[in-house]
Design brief:
- This protein has 276 residues and is an alpha/beta fold.
- It has a 7-stranded mixed beta sheet, with helices on both faces. A two-stranded parallel sheet has the order 6-9.
- Helix 1 links the parallel strand 1 and strand 2.
- It is globular and about 65 Å long.
- Bound molecules: guanosine-5'-triphosphate and magnesium ion.
Length: 276
């Protein structure tokens, strides 16, 4: 079992900092003990403090890890300041924009290295409603290995998202699910809860995608490894402040990655069926 690093929750002396897996097990009702919420950030100065506060309010027992790529707007300093006030907030500071995939790779590795049992990923731009976290965590406690906050199951929705983004997301999900034979309805949702044990069973460090394709590939890897998925409907709210980092380049990269994965899987299935 890991322990929190010394710097963890710096400045929060005396506060009841959440502890990793040597705390009570998930099933006891203290569902946030041993839980880490990862918030990747790039230029989220307008959102990060509120994002941290909302997470802490919804799951007071969960620790928070901000993985910030420096965009020169002071996001990391704001997160550190919130951490001094609230405790149990760690900030991984990286010098330049290394991409969402790299941020998740670092965040997940950090979480596993520090012995957390349950790892949450969510956007820091307030698009993911932190009040849904207790529900996502309880579905995990009921037996799922990965819980996806999904826009594309009954009851899920996207609010104030431009038609183009909505269409791209819908189409991208349809394409990826069909090509990969995945049963996950919202493969591109970054709002997810993972049981650490299933993450340990896959080599997510080997994922090649630099952008959102990382999330698709990770879900696909986990699904193929036998992880039990559950989807919980969530309302995705378009960001109000700050700028989107989604770009045509990232969308095309995801398309390329998914196509390559799908064709590889088909080729492997075909070779497996061929008489030798
Ligand atoms: N560390 C890090 N975080 C990133 C990077 N790119 C995006 N993020 C964060 O990842 C989350 C999702 O990025 P967004 O730009 O909101 O992407 P999106 O939600 O698909 O796009 P919008 O709907 O337009 O907001 C946000 O918290 C970003 O700050 C990056 O290169 N590095
Ligand atoms: Mg966003």
């Amino acid at each position: 079992m890991g322990t929190l690093p010394r710097s963890f929750g710096q400045g929060a002396q005396g506060s009841a900092a959440p502890r990793p897996s040597d705390a009570l097990p998930l099933e006891t009702g203290t569902e946030a003990a041993g839980t880490l919420v990862i918030l990747p950030t790039y230029r989220e100065a307008d959102n990060i403090v509120q994002a941290i506060e909302r997470v802490r309010r919804s799951v007071p027992g969960a620790a928070i890890l901000v993985v910030d790529d420096d965009g020169g707007d002071g996001t990391a300093e704001l997160a550190q300041e919130a951490g001094r006030r609230l405790g149990a907030v760690e900030v991984l500071r990286r010098p330049g924009k290394a991409g969402l995939a790299s941020a998740y790779r670092s965040g997940l590795t950090w979480a596993l290295d520090h012995g957390f049992d349950v790892i949450v990923g969510m956007d820091a731009d307030l698009s993911h409603d932190a009040t849904a976290l207790p529900r996502l965590l309880s579905v995990l406690a009921e037996g799922a290995d990965v819980v996806v906050g999904s826009r594309y199951v009954r009851g899920g929705s996207s609010v104030a998202w431009p038609l183009g983004r909505r269409a791209l997301s819908r189409w991208g999900n349809w394409y990826a699910a069909h090509l990969l034979g995945s049963h996950v309805g919202d493969l591109t949702s970054a709002f997810r809860v993972y049981r650490a044990s299933v993450l340990r069973g896959v080599d997510f460090g080997a994922i090649r995608a630099g952008g959102y394709g990382f999330l698709i590939e990770l879900a696909y890897m986990l699904e193929r490894s036998g992880a039990r998925f559950a989807e919980v409907p969530v309302q995705f709210i378009n960001r109000v402040a700050g700028r989107s980092k989604m770009s045509l380049r990232i969308a095309l990269e995801s398309l390329r990655v998914v196509t390559a994965m799908g064709l590889t899987a088909r080729w492997e299935r075909w070779r497996g069926r061929r008489p030798t």
